Amino acid sequence: MAENETLECITEHERILQEIESTDTACVGPTLRSIYDDQPNAHKRFMEKLDARIRNHDREIEKMCNFHHQGFVDAITELLKVRADAEKLMGQVTDTNRRLQEAGREVTAQTEEVIRCRIQQRNMATTVEKLQLCIPVLEMYSKLKEQLESKRYYAALKTMEQLEKVYIPRVSQYRFCQIMAENLPRLREEIKEISMSDLKDFLESIRKHSDKVGETAMRQAQQHRTFNSAVAKQASMGHYTKPVYSLNGRTHTHTPNGLLMDDDTGDEEEADEEVLTAQDLVDFSPVYRCLHIYTVLGDRETFENYYRKQRKKQARLVLQPQANMHETVEGYRKYFNQIVGFFVVEDHILHATRGLVTRAFTDELWNMALSKIIAVLRTHSSYCDDPDLVLELKNLIVIFADTLQGYGFPVNRLFDLLFEVRDQYNETLLKKWALVFREIFELDNYSPIPVDTEEEYKLVVSRFPFHDAEIEKQDFPKKLPMSQSVPQIYTQVKEFIYASLKFSESLHRSSTEIDDMLRKSTNLLLTRTLSSCLQNLIKKPHIGLTELVQIIINTTHLEQACRYLEEFITNITNVSPETVHTTRLYGLSTFKDARHAAEGEIYTKLNQKIDEFIQLADYEWGMAESDGRASGYLMDLINFLRSTFQVFTHLPNNNNDHASMSGKVAQTACMSACKHLSTSLMQMLLDTELKQISMGAIQQFNLDVIQCELFASSEPVPGFQGDTLQLAFIDLRQLLDLFMVWDWSTYLADYGQPTSKYLRVNPATALALLEKVYRGMKDTSKKNNIFSQFRKNDRDKQKLIETVVKQLRSLVNGMSS
């Protein structure tokens, strides 16, 4: 057992020793530690083993040294022998070196001279080489200075770019190149400032030249429209040729520089004409140059933003009108020229540059401008009271719209605005024709037109569509039923239609729409302007009854002429009146209304005149007996009515229609006058301020009413049947008969019966008058101091009056309940 453990221990110590011999010294620690971690006293045995190994190695070293010692001794002996030979060789080398140095001293000097020359030659070559590199830089810089002096800024920028990228990097180590490189940014900024200054001058220039550019463009647009009209006529005749003229020298083909040029250059006549374009009137080189410069400098966006901002500001200035623009057509023309010029320039810039302005930008500018233009035109056109100026404004708007439409701008809103301007134009026309109608009415003598010869008759008929077989058969001289104002009014209505038609030209509207416009404007003239003038004429105080009757006749003829106005409009527009949507003229109602107003004015004036006579009445309501004759005021009134109705009957009655019309008016006026006279006399009796009436006053009043009845029965106006006119006084007659006959028993007994003798006497009226008569009786008795005698003699009459009063009051109360 002990032997086994000893054998294992020896084997382990052998392994450890081999590991120590074969392992790096840094890793010996763990191996040695394992010795101490083993059995007790193992390290001692290991140390013994280690000492034995050391002694073994020492013996091997000693054996090896003994083996090689003789060789070492022999090598040392050989080395000592070589030492002498080496010293001898050293001496020989030193001598040879000395002699070589003496022999090569002159060669060395010459070699150094050659080296110095070679260095100089090399330096010269290097200098020449460097100068050859620097000379192009200096030449380019000199070229840059010349370009700057000659204001060739775009070329100068290209030169600077070459200097920076090609030439200066080759010689960047030299100071003058560094100075050049430092100057280049400053020169760029100077070029930017100079080009921006040129751009500002350009913007100022186009602002000043916009008027001329716009004037040229609008003139060419007008020529283009005239040319198209001629082409359309040729096409309608079957001789159509391709148009060779284009708006502002442009067609729909874009040239490389963005301008629209004329397609057909083969026409010699057109070739002879010089067509000016925006490029001919404005030098665009500053903006091109500035655009290129900023593009090269990599700052194009800044330039674009600045240009657009400035153009927006200029657009706002251009769109600002002068305060007195509406006073003359030149004000409008200048305003339109500036706007057209502005957008022609923008259109050219749009097509001549790539992205400086975009279609979206120009559309935005145009929409802003269009809104402003429409607002300005609405405001200023409303101040225009001259139809000629409004018409010229319309023509300018049409040319303005056509011009910009040729450049691709939408102008539909402008043509919509023209409808508003058309309304304004019609308003100014209506105001102008209102003055014309008033002047015609003021100068008219309101008497039939006398014609002494055939020429005079034809002249009147040529101006007014009058046809009457009976009058044509009469010998000269003769009279036409209407007054001088009728053909004048008819002629002026036609002139108004012509004037209204002028506005409809060039509006790109169909014949039906134009026809509708003409009819509507003519209706306004008839129903508003002419009607108002007629109404005002009828109301004028100096227009008498004769003039009113003539006005009625005139309106009848004008009413009959309306169908000729319809035909006149139809001939102008070539639109059949049977068209479904054709507007009809409303002249019939206008003249009917005027005629009715004149008739009403006749009745009113008659009644006013009757009232004036009635105010002259001076009855002595307390008279004991009547004068035995009618009152003077009433006889004057009746004589006035007779003479007035005599004038009515002497009106021209050549035409049955006129005769029937004047007769009808006279009958109505006569009946109205009699009714008004009857009513006025009744009101005079029943006046509340009149407290008492004597029977003598009743008798005098009865005499006046008799005269009225005699006048009514004398047939002052022919055509009344039977006693129709006398019925106007029936209320007065029955009332007065009741008091004159004192037939109260019959009145009360027959009251309410259809066959009553006093059917037209109202109980309230009879009661009011009876109370006045009763108070008059009592007042008369007191004055005569015979009231007691009256009571004795007329007691029965007094009781009768009181009884009648009570019964009348009961009737009145019964009617009110």
Structural class label: mainly alpha
Q: Give the total of beta strands.
A: 2
Low-confidence stretches: 236-273, 652-659, 786-790
The SSE order reads HHHHHHHHHHHHHEHHEHHHHHHHHHHHHH
Just name the CATH architecture of the domain at 617-815.
Answer: Up-down Bundle
Instruction: Give the overall form.
Output: elongated
Quick one: biggest sheet? 2 strands, antiparallel
Strand content: under 5%
**How many DSSP H or I helices?**
28
Describe this structure in words.
- The model is unreliable at 236-273, 652-659 and 786-790 (pLDDT under 50).
- With 817 residues, the chain is mostly helical.
- The protein is 75% helix and 1% strand.
- The longest helix is centred in the first third of the chain and has 108 residues, at 42-149.
- Helix 1 (2-22) packs antiparallel against helix 2.
Q: Summarize this, please?
A:
With 817 residues, this protein is mainly alpha-helical.
Notable traits:
5 helical Cullin repeat like; 817 residues; mainly alpha; 28 helices; two-stranded antiparallel ribbon; EXOC6/Sec15; single chain; Tetracycline Repressor, domain 2; 2 strands; EXOC6/Sec15_C_dom1
Write the layout of secondary structure elements.
Blueprint: H1 2-22, H2 28-36, H3 42-149, H4 153-167, H5 175-236, H6 268-272, H7 278-281, H8 285-296, H9 300-318, H10 329-352, H11 359-381, H12 387-406, H13 412-443, E1 449-451, H14 454-463, H15 469-473, E2 478-480, H16 485-504, H17 511-539, H18 545-560, H19 562-573, H20 587-615, H21 632-649, H22 656-685, H23 695-713, H24 730-741, H25 744-750, H26 763-784, H27 787-793, H28 795-816
Antiparallel strand pairs: 1-2
Helix pairs in contact: 1-2, 1-3, 3-4, 4-5, 4-8, 5-8, 5-10, 5-12, 8-9, 10-12, 11-13, 12-13, 13-16, 13-17, 16-17, 16-18, 17-19, 17-20, 18-20, 20-22, 21-22, 21-23, 23-24, 26-28
